[in-house]
Amino acid sequence: MLRKLGMIVLALFGVVALAGAGKPLPARSVGNWNATVVRTPIDSHLLGNPNAKVKLVEYISYTCPHCAHFEQESDAQLRIGFIATGKGSIEVRSFVRDGIDMTVALLTHCGAPNRFFANHNAFLRSQQTWIAPVMTATEAQKARWYNGPLPSRTRAIAADLHLYDIMEKRGYSRAETDRCLADTALAGRLAKHTQEAVDNDYVNGTPSFVLNGVPLAGTYSWAALKPQLEAALN
After folding, report:
1. How many helices (H) and strands (E) does the chain have?
2. Model confidence at 192: pLDDT above 50
3. β-pairing, 54-60 with 45-48?
4. What is the DSSP code string of 132-179?
5. Residue 31: which pLDDT band, with cuts at 50, 70 and 90?
6. H or E segment at 209?
């Protein structure tokens, strides 16, 4: 099912999955590992010590309510007890399920790497608000979301779901937001990385986690993940 989904995403967006996104940025000087963000060659973002003993990878879908719930439950605890110490890091990878996912993922990547996690948090914390118009969207609106060039589709979604308002509150101008929504190369790579996650059996639902290179089966919540992190740290 997920394998088919990944191919559908690639087809919907009609974008070429270009390889490579440059080398990771060097870690900043350490005083608080929560201030260190690295953008990886696979377009993910790593928060914390890049050389941490325990490396957690999270696959996230921005339209997934369980992902929003996980963010609310785990964010403070991960930052205080896991990332700040330098013993753990978390790498967030986008898993794009549809056009709305892709639109929000492009917006979280907007700007310098050190802005990603605040963007990520802003969209997950407000998910119930911005996703609500999907339920009442007209067929004409949905047609704009999935037809035409990528920039016109993502801008239509951003307008109809009031995503521009979130970006404006984050300090982005309309022009900056539109440039991010028109990033066809990044959209292609995110679709490609999603398909690779499916092919490698890393994702069976969202959120999904990989701990020190090992996919965590049956782990979709903070309650299930926390004891596994504690065991790895000890």
Report:
1. 11, 6
2. yes
3. unpaired
4. GGGGG--HHHHHHHHSS-HHHHHHHHHHHTTHHHHHHHTT--HHHHHH
5. low
6. strand 208-211
Q: What is the DSSP letter of 114?
A: G
Evaluate whether 48 touches 89 at the Cβ level (below 8 Å).
yes
Residues β-bridged to residue 224 = none
Whole-number Å distance between alpha carbons of 201 and 215: 8
If DSSP codes are grouped into helix, strand and coil, which group holds residue 94? Answer: strand
Tokens of 87: 């013993």
90 phi and psi, to 5 degrees?
A: -130, 130
Closest by Cα among 220, 27, 5 to 114: 27
* Phi–psi pair at 52, nearest 5 degrees: -60, 150
Q: In whole angstroms, how large is the CA radius of gyration of the chain?
A: 17
Taking CA atoms, 190 is separated from 9, 20, 34, 48, 59, in Å, by 10, 11, 25, 22, 12
pLDDT in tens, 33-43: 999 999 999 99
CA distance 122 to 168: 12
Backbone φ/ψ region at 171: left (φ over 0), alpha (ψ -120 to 50), beta: left
Q: What CA–CA distance (Å, rounded) separates 55 from 90?
A: 6
Report which of 56, 64, 102, 65 is spatially closest to residue 194, judged by C-alpha positions. Answer: 102
